[in-house]
Design brief:
The chain is an all-alpha fold. It has one domain: Orthogonal Bundle (MetI-like fold). 78% of the residues lie in helices and 0% in strands. It has 14 helices and no strands. Helix 5 packs antiparallel against helix 6 and helix 5 packs across helix 9. It starts with a helix and ends with a helix.
């Protein structure tokens, strides 16, 4: 097990280094460049030359990369041109809790509903529940995130007034924010009304962001369970007279979880892309909104930090998925 962890950590480091090189080279070669974005209409040749020298762009590319990596490793990504126009890490720190809270709620919605639905669809294959589930997953994958968000917002927020239309908390609510995770802060400070209000604001954005992962998880769970149901060890367990609960938990679901776990890991990596649109629709104010604003104003330091952060989260999640295989299936530990 230790050997597997060390190998995965080494692969993670190599992957992050390769991604950092790609991000650095890609952003340096975008049309216009950071110098033009910073100077705007004041971009005279003299000003460009002075700013390029100040930023170190007159040095070889490899030297620019190593200088940048030194700053990154020290936690210095530069100054941001969006939000409060402070340090990049400060801007990310303000938006990160909002996106993590939204992504976690979307993932809980997708996993909590997707795995049971996928299992029930496989168990009643060819019946009404199965056919309805398949149709629903097709619609869930096909409907764009921003369209679904606007539909839910119009129906449940503006027409029925069941949920708030935007934001993370009600205006005028006096709540103490310790971590900027609004639900958690309410629990920590025992301001349970603040937690309830935050959950109330979370429901529509979480459903919007979690719909596509939900549809994918349902389809993969259904296919995986159908494969396991035809295995000899399931029929042997049934012939031995084991309880249905034991067969479902120990022999069917546990063995069907490997592809489902892989799918969940991949969907976590894709949540950031959906968060950009979801946060825009619901005015959420997280990393997705910061990414959109950074692209709009060509804020290259913030873009670099966000891309590296997203890559790091994706790699760490996949490391956790790989390690979870050994917990789910003991045969993986032997390989």
């Amino acid at each position: 097990m230790l050997r597997v962890i060390v190998r995965r950590l080494l692969q993670m480091v190599v992957t992050l280094v390769a991604l950092s090189v790609l991000v650095f080279v890609w952003l340096r070669n975008l049309p216009g460049g950071q110098v033009s974005a910073m100077l705007d209409e004041r971009a005279t040749p003299e000003r460009r030359a002075l700013l390029e020298k100040a930023l170190g762009y007159d040095q070889p590319v490899w030297k620019q990369y190593f200088n940048w990596i030194k700053l990154v490793l020290s936690g210095n990504f530069g100054n941001s041109r969006v939000g409060g126009q402070g340090l990049v890490l400060d801007e990310i720190g303000r938006g990160f809790p909002a996106t993590m809270e939204l992504s976690s709620a979307a993932l809980i919605f997708a996993i909590g509903l997707g795995i049971p639905l996928g299992y029930m669809a496989a168990r009643y294959k060819g019946r009404l529940l199965d056919n309805t589930t398949i149709l629903g997953t097709l619609v869930g994958v096909a409907v764009p995130v921003f369209f679904l968000g606007y539909v839910l917002k119009v129906i449940f927020a503006e027409n029925l007034h069941w949920f708030p239309a935007s934001g993370r908390a009600s205006t005028g609510l006096d709540a103490t924010h310790v971590t900027n995770f609004f639900v958690l802060d309410g629990l920590i400070t025992r301001e349970f009304d603040a937690s309830a209000d935050a959950i109330h604001h979370l429901i529509l954005p979480a459903i919007t962001l979690g719909t596509i992962p939900l549809a994918v998880i349902v389809r993969i769970t259904r296919a995986s369970v159908l494969d396991v149901l035809n295995e000899d060890y399931v029929r042997t367990a049934e012939a031995k007279g084991l309880r249905a609960r034991t067969i479902r938990g120990r022999h069917i679901l546990r063995n069907a979880m490997l592809p489902v776990t892989t799918t969940i890991g991949l969907q976590i990596g894709l949540l950031l892309a959906g968060a950009v649109l979801t946060e825009t629709v619901f005015n959420w104010g997280g990393i997705g909104s910061l990414l959109k604003d950074s692209i709009t104003v060509r804020d290259y330091p913030t873009l670099q930090a966000l891309l590296i952060m997203a890559a790091g989260v994706y790699v760490v999640v996949n490391l956790m998925v790989d390690l979870s295989y050994a917990v789910i299936d003991p045969r993986v530990r032997v390989r």
